[in-house]
Design goal:
The complex is a heterodimer of chains A (about 120) and B (about 120).
Chain A (H helix, E strand, L loop, with lengths): L2 E3 L4 E5 L4 E3 L2 E3 L4 E8 L5 E7 L5 E3 L5 E5 L4 E6 L8 E9 L8 E3 L3 E6 L1
Parallel strand pairs in A: 2-12
Antiparallel strand pairs in A: 1-4, 3-9, 5-6, 5-10, 7-8, 8-9, 10-11, 10-12
Chain B lengths: L3 E4 L2 E4 L5 E7 L5 E8 L3 E10 L2 E4 L7 E2 L9 E3 L8 E8 L12 E2 L3 E5 L1
Parallel strand pairs in B: 2-11
Antiparallel strand pairs in B: 1-3, 3-8, 4-5, 4-9, 5-6, 7-8, 9-10, 9-11
């Protein structure tokens, strides 16, 4: 079985400060990892993914994520937060062997609030 | 523009009255999926389809039906809706090549908010 944990329901950051949204995962094999963002009244939008190779992955809107195999983590980061980054963020994992219904499991989501 | 389109966006209905939520994608994707989103539970998969006429249950299929007669369409059917199916529903699609080993991200519709009274 595979699972994703996003330990924080909400993260508050002042505009201009760096932000981190945490994600840890559990899979039996090697993972594909994804981050999605959801703005109010919209569907999920793809931000970035880790497949293989460089542990630091860069994505849309200045976001990046660091894959850490030993800690089974894939934290989302941004050097300088914008008010417009305020949204709901989802981490997702897929076992490369494709276990599960479609192999993709989502975390429960983290509300990111950027204060002016 | 590449997109996944869901209709309706909002629906309030009563227990037992059959309803269908439509989903259409214009990207020629093979794989389509339905999720429900509930507070504190994240997204849970209801049904998925790997191609035309191929559908399978996800994690929470009870009370739902789907069909995939055409590649672009994947309707979600609630034959006898109940209040516990009040939720926010999302349709998603992806290329699906080599699925389930693909690393391609899914494209999501804007959601359908269902309220079953």
């Amino acid at each position: 079985a595979q699972s994703v944990a996003q330990p924080e329901d909400q993260v508050n950051v002042a505009e201009g400060n760096p932000l981190t949204v945490k994600c840890t995962y559990s899979v039996s094999g090697n993972p594909y990892l994804f981050w999605y963002v959801q703005y109010p009244n919209r569907g999920l939008q793809f931000l970035l993914k880790y497949i293989t190779g460089d542990n630091l992955v860069k994505g849309s809107y200045g976001f990046e994520a660091e894959f850490n195999k030993s800690q089974t983590s894939f934290h989302l980061k941004k050097p300088s937060a914008l008010v417009s980054d305020s949204a709901l963020y989802f981490c997702a994992v897929r076992d490369r062997s494709g276990g599960g219904a479609d192999g993709l499991t989502f975390g429960k989501g983290t509300h990111l609030i950027i204060q002016p | 523009e590449a997109q996944v389109t869901q209709n309706p966006r909002y629906l309030i209905t009563v227990t037992g009255k059959k309803l269908t939520v439509t989903c259409s994608q214009n990207m020629n994707h093979e794989y389509m999926s339905w999720y429900r989103q509930d507070p504190g539970l994240g997204l849970r998969q209801i049904y998925y389809s790997m191609n035309v006429e191929v559908t399978d249950k996800g994690d929470v299929p009870e009370g739902y039906k789907v069909s995939r007669k055409e590649k672009r369409n994947f309707p979600l059917i609630l034959e006898s809706p109940s209040p516990n199916q009040t939720s926010l529903y999302f349709c998603a699609s992806s290329l699906g090549r080599g699925w389930p080993n693909s690393n391609q991200p899914q494209h999501f519709g804007d959601g359908t908010r269902l309220s079953i009274l």
